[in-house]
Amino acid sequence: MQGRLIKNDAEYERARVALLEMAARLDDPLKDMEPDERIKTHKIYDRTADLMKYYSRGRDVEREPRLRGQYEAAGWAYQDFSSPADTPRMSPETKTSPKTEEAAKQTPEPPKTASKVSSWLDD
Question: What is the C-alpha separation between 49 and 75, in angstroms, rounded?
């Protein structure tokens, strides 16, 4: 997924409320919507629903790491909360991990030692 992502639970809740409001507007037969406006609203609805699934799957993987393998086997993208970059773990079009090629080129960083991590406690 590229573009704007849902970053936290508050944004997820706002997206959920907006999705319900858009669904009500799209489903209302008495609502006079121009065809162009209806198409645009429907595209926004679809994108919001996709972002919500992407975020939800990422939170599921965070809570239950065994789902990572199942999602990758199914070719489902999910939001990776373990890294600072918000890039998809799985590319749905190619069903290959975009990080695999980058990981082969880069050398792994040495793990942070306890002294570096807890140095702020000395103050």
Answer: 18
Using alpha carbons, select from 56, 53, 49 the residue that is nearest to residue 18. 49
Backbone angle region of 111, left / alpha / beta, with phi > 0 → left and psi within -120 to 50 → alpha: beta
Helix runs in the chain, H state only? 9-27, 35-63, 67-74, 98-105, 114-117
Answer for the pair 89, 81: CB distance below 8 angstroms, yes or no. Answer: no
Q: Can you tell me the distance from the alpha carbon of 70 to that of 74, in angstroms, rounded to the nearest whole number?
A: 6
Mean pLDDT of 2-19: 91
What's the pTM value of the predicted model, to 2 decimals? 0.63
SS3 59: helix
